[in-house]
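Design job #97: recover the sequence.
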């Protein structure tokens, strides 16, 4: 029986369409820079928010109407939910999905029972993938919800918590490989600390690195060739997260010899919690060779927590796609809608409205970004701003032909630096607006 009987496959109807269950911008086969939109955007549905979100918050219980859910999360209910999930994703037309292990199957009384539960649901996921052609973008393990991880998982002061997390990731890697996942994400939901008085930071960082090396080693032993990702997130839930932002994560990976194995999975709302814009995080990761995948959402700048809203701001999506195109596009990664409908948007149909809006916003952002690149005006303005580095002493510095002594000699002879030119921020912003409206 269909969980969404009143919804047929979502089609592209063009910018004049008034149909709320149709795409106005996302035409999956339209070529942009010589490649179909669907290959640029690589949309993914997040299993946890879309199919497990209840709408609960610190002030009240869940509000969501989810007819496919039972009173308890049994294995049978989890198997039914998996079929509902694939009906939704297939009708939406997204090519990928993502999950945590605990999203798709309930935890049992023992690790053995938990693994058995997961195997039963993975069998259904595999059948549905084969039926629909939908693929797994990446898998991961939930190492933050169970009370055993109250002090962290890989960074816990309790060695047994570390060992249990290792066993959980071992199984998650096996399942991700079985389902043909293109990647695996490390997200340290509680890898951090609240109080330095009771924390051995060096030891915890060493343990986190050791844990990730164990995962890389095991993946190689079982033949999992997917891309590993590290997801930055500051402040929440611990006051000091070790995975604060891209710069901190990349420094960690280089310091501990993991750089060749792991790239970044960057989320918009996490960037803003770190005091950055998402384009800053993407550009920094891209400039360092670590740009991998994106959790596509947004936050409310009036609120100080991770609201995980669907992205509908065209400026935001254009900025994201401009950076992604700059660094050659997404390969194994994608745009995963790590976003949830609002507590007040409680009907199942709202899941379609939310994803359609996000997909259209990114399609529009992609076209704007491609137009900016094709025209070249913005790139020329940036190049002109750095013209002093294209020849003369600037080019010589970049070529490594100077030291402090020779630069002192240059300035003694010249007497004073050349006058600065205006940054013209307002003009740059106006030029960008030409492509948006």
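Job complete. Output follows.
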């Amino acid at each position: 029986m269909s969980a969404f009987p009143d919804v047929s496959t979502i089609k592209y109807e063009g910018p004049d369409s008034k149909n709320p269950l149709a795409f106005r911008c996302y035409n999956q086969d339209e070529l942009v820079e010589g490649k179909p939109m669907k290959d640029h955007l690589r949309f993914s549905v997040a299993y946890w928010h879309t199919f497990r979100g209840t709408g609960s918050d610190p002030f009240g219980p869940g509000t969501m109407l989810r007819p496919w859910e039972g009173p308890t999360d049994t294995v049978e209910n989890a198997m039914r939910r998996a079929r509902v999930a694939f009906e939704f994703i297939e009708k939406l037309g997204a090519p990928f999905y993502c999950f945590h292990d605990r999203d798709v199957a309930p935890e049992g009384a023992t690790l053995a029972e938990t693994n058995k539960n997961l195997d039963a649901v993975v069998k259904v996921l595999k059948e549905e993938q084969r039926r629909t052609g939908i693929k797994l973008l990446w898998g991961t393990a939930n190492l933050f919800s169970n009370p055993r991880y109250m002090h962290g998982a890989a960074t816990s002061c309790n060695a047994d918590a570390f060992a249990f997390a290792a066993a959980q990731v071992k199984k998650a890697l096996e399942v991700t490989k079985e389902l043909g996942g293109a990647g695996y994400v490390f997200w340290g939901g509680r890898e951090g600390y609240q109080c330095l008085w009771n924390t051995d930071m060096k030891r915890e960082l060493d343990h986190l690195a050791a844990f990730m090396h164990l995962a890389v080693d095991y993946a190689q032993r079982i033949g999992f060739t997917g891309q590993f990702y590290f997801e930055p997130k500051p402040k929440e839930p611990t006051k000091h997260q070790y995975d604060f932002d891209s710069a901190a994560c990349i420094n960690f990976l280089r310091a501990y010899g993991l750089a060749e194995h792991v790239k970044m999975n960057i989320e918009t709302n996490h960037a803003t919690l770190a005091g950055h814009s998402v384009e800053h995080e993407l550009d920094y990761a891209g400039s360092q060779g670590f740009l991998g995948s994106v959790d596509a959402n947004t936050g409310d700048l009036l609120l100080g927590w991770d609201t995980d809203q669907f992205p509908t701001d065209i400026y935001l999506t254009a900025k994201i796609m401009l950076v992604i195109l700059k660094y050659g596009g997404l390969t194994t990664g994608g745009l995963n809608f790590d976003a949830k409908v609002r507590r007040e948007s409680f009907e199942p149909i709202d899941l379609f409205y939310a994803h359609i809006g996000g997909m259209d916003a990114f399609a529009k952002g992609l076209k704007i970004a491609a137009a900016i690149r094709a025209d070249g005006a913005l790139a020329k303005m940036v190049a002109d701003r750095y013209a002093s580095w294209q020849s003369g002493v600037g080019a010589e510095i970049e070529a490594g032909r100077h030291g402090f002594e020779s630069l002192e000699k240059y300035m003694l002879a010249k007497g004073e630096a050349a006058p600065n030119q205006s940054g013209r921020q307002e003009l740059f912003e106006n030029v960008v607006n030409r492509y948006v409206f």
